[in-house]
Write a structure and sequence with these properties.
The protein is an alpha+beta fold. About 30% of the residues lie in helices and about 20% in strands. It binds zinc ion.
């Protein structure tokens, strides 16, 4: 039986490593704007978040996305992205 190693990524909210497919990717495009990347395959530099409101809040409070990407995003940009993220949120069990 083949054992496939699960790719892990670190959530920028809670800083825990989780299987990549359980996380939501955010990607910064060439123009420096931030997008939710539901496919996980968009070009650009990405950061990952758990699909939970607590991680969204932590990431925002710590300005973790901009810090991870070494970029700065306006409040308006972050409002838009976090507004989009809500639809990917899963209830904590
Ligand atoms: Zn998390």
């Amino acid at each position: 039986m083949k054992v496939r190693k699960v790719p892990m990524r670190r959530c920028v909210g809670c800083m825990e490593s989780k299987p990549k497919k359980e996380l939501i990717r955010l990607v910064a495009d060439e123009g420096g704007s931030l997008h939710v990347d539901p496919t996980g395959k968009a070009n650009g530099r990405g950061v990952y978040l758990c699909p939970s409101s607590s991680c969204f809040a932590l990431a925002r409070k710590r300005k973790a996305i901009g810090r991870s990407l070494e970029m700065s995003f306006s409040e308006e940009e972050l409002d838009r992205v976090f507004g989009e993220l809500v639809q990917y949120e899963k209830q904590d069990s």
